Amino acid sequence: MSQVNIESDQIEEMAGGEFEREPVPQSKLKGWKSFLGMYAGEHAAGTEFMIGPLFLTAGVSAFDLIVGLLFGNLLAVLSWRFLTAEIAVKNRLTLYFQLEKICGKKLVTAYNLANGILFCFLAGSMITVSATAVGIPFDMEMPKLSDTMPNGITWIIIVIAIGAVISLIASKGYDTVSKAANWMSPVIVLAFVACGVVALTQLEVTSFSDFWNIWGEGSEPFPGQIKFTFWHVVIWSWFANGAMHVGMSDLSVFRFAKKASSGWTTAAGMYVGHYMAWIAAALLYAVYLKTPEALSFLNNGEAPPVAPGPLAHNAIGVFGIIAVVLAGWTTANPTIYRAGLAFQAIIPKASTFWVTIIAGTIATIAGLFPAFAMKLLGFVALYGFILAPVGAVIVFEHFFAEKLGITKNYAEIAGIKVNNAVLFAWAISFGLFYFISVQFDVFLSFVTLPAWLLSGVLFLAFSKMIQKKGS
Predict the structure, then answer these.
(1) CA dist., res. 339 & res. 127, Å (int)
(2) Structural contact between residues 421 and 463, judged by C-beta atoms closer than 8 angstroms
(3) Alpha carbons 376 and 370: distance in angstroms, whole number
(4) Burial class (CB in 10 A: 0-12, 13-18, 19+), 150
């Protein structure tokens, strides 16, 4: 889920460091192979070590998990191909510049602030993941699934040390991050494959029916977790990267694509990372659940801890520890860098070094609290829910504005800093469906699509009214 494994000469461009305020010229366009490598690497990372086991804690059945992920990831690929990539190759602008044209500089500033903070929390959860591996030689007590606060001084010291190293490396620039990531990503993918194979052996799986029976008909969710059905799996996996596809964040990447068909390359990330890697990580947890330690937790009515470090170490030894550290690193590092870029857009006079250090400090503080990692399913759902409706504004303007006689890029043409059509559309759709989620206990991912659709429709309606009044 981190944005890594791109050739080093493309990194600064795709991060927005070149052609930031102009369309990408024809001479700089990239073929589909550039995007294939990127997406295959970026979606087999630290988050996968957490998400796979968390599906088991939600009591999924074999059908719900295996078939649900198949369809959910397909919907994500289709969103990238027919929405994100389609719009990106038409306009060839970064998300931020395109938003500025539509909604004005002040609203883009608010978006950058929200985006930067959410990036920091995601990076913090990956520092937590790496800490579970680094803590093994120190016999550190692992955080439990229900833990919110730091559980000891050893945990605090390790998290701060990891956060400091990651922040300093991220502050050196994206080129440094990418060179290391290009080496690490294949190792991480290999580790997921090895973990899956070893776990199948430990579970004594000799046939497909044995594999299917690992999840069987499902079970009751662990204490403190919600029950995942087929539709939970489908919708959650569709919107796990909602901010990137329907939220249009990857406009900044696909603006370099020669053709919109490059959007199909996202399938490499969805089916290597969000299918193979999630299931492999779930298998590691299935092995752990048969141990006396895990059974004692369950017998006491507690959820056994989900600590990626010990799970991978149990399967493939020291290589597992290294893989988890690298996986957390390759997610947290570029995420902190991108958070720094978002903050720099708000305080442009600040140096890249210092805004990245600020982002890293926030991420490290977040990493001290295990709840961000242990509740990753919920956090990722919230992340997509907040940012996706903003992408709807771009999508609906692109496909419907001319048909309805609405002026495109209205904030730029009218010279306004806040386009109220965007502000009201997002606020109403977010507020209404968040209220529904909380009041009626509806899983947040279930209301992401309705919120996205409503945001787009309201944007068109408000734009028609405001522009008519303005004229």
Answers:
(1) 15
(2) yes
(3) 10
(4) middle
Number of H helices, E strands in the chain: 23, 0
To which residue do tokens 């796979």 refer?
A: 52
- Mind listing the domains of the chain with CATH numbers? 8-377 (1.10.4160.10)
State residue 290 phi and psi, 5-degree precision.
-90, -5
Token pair for 161: 């040390």
Q: Which residues pair with 30 in a beta bridge?
A: 257
Residue 257, SS3 per DSSP? strand
Task: Pull the structure tokens for residue 223.
Answer: 């204490």
Count of residues making up the chain: 471
- Residue 257 has phi, psi (to 5 degrees) of -80, 140
Burial grade of 36 (CB within 10 A; 0-12, 13-18, 19 or more):
middle
- Please say whether the beta carbons of 460 and 404 come within 8 A: yes
Q: Which two tokens stand for residue 1?
A: 């889920």
Task: Please count the other Cβ atoms lying within 10 Å of the Cβ belonging to residue 173.
Answer: 17
CA 347/CA 216 separation, integer angstroms: 53
Tokens 């299931």 belong to residue:
279
Give per-residue pLDDT as tens, 312-370. Answer: 888 889 888 888 888 887 778 777 877 887 787 788 787 878 888 999 999 999 999 99
Q: What number of other Cβ atoms are within 10 A of residue 27's Cβ? A: 5
Q: Which of 385, 407, 445 is nearest to 118 (CA)?
A: 385
SS3 418: coil
Tell me which amino acid residue 368 is: L
Q: Is the pTM of this model over 0.85?
A: yes
Other CB atoms within 10 Å distance of the CB of residue 112 = 19
H or E stretch including 211? helix 208-212
Tell me the CA end-to-end span of the chain in Å, nearest whole number: 44
Q: Looking at residue 356, what DSSP letter applies?
A: H
What type of residue is 146?
Answer: S
- pLDDT for the residue numbered 3: 38
